[in-house]
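Side project, low priority. Logging it here so it doesn't get lost.
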Amino acid sequence: MDPLKVVVMTKPQRKQTLNLLWNGLLKEKDMFKLDERLLADGPILDTLFADHVIISKRGSQYPWLVVVPKVADACEIFDLKKTERDYLFFVVNHVAKALKQATGADKINIECIGNVCSQLHVHVIARFITDDTWPAPVWNKPFKAKDLDEEATIARVLEIMKVAVYGE
């Protein structure tokens, strides 16, 4: 797949995947499954990138998104094929730029750690010099919850990504 091409799975493609599963040509173990811990972080966003899941991390003082490539059993970036890796960086780049534009953040942190949940995922976090933990990392730091309009921020991020990808 061309890493710069956004692919949306059509109904016929979904049907073909289901037929392959049904006929035993594609094993369920080869299918992507989102780790429950990531799923518990927050809602999955309706996304333009069919090969990735984007999650809004709920209850954070920071606008925080998590990008998960839909690749079965991927734990490390080097587990991805070159085209999958290139596409992951393409998606993360678009998500980061949209998050910065939507929030006016002073800095965007991009992190790929995976010590708690080993499924490959990339954190994209908007940081502000006024946040409680600045300039320290966000990991395991106590912080006061702030009133964020998460829904409005996410809607704006999705709108910006759509314009960036489709030029609409």
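Brief comment: Residues 11-166 form a domain with the HIT family, subunit A fold (CATH 3.30.428.10).
Revisit when time allows.
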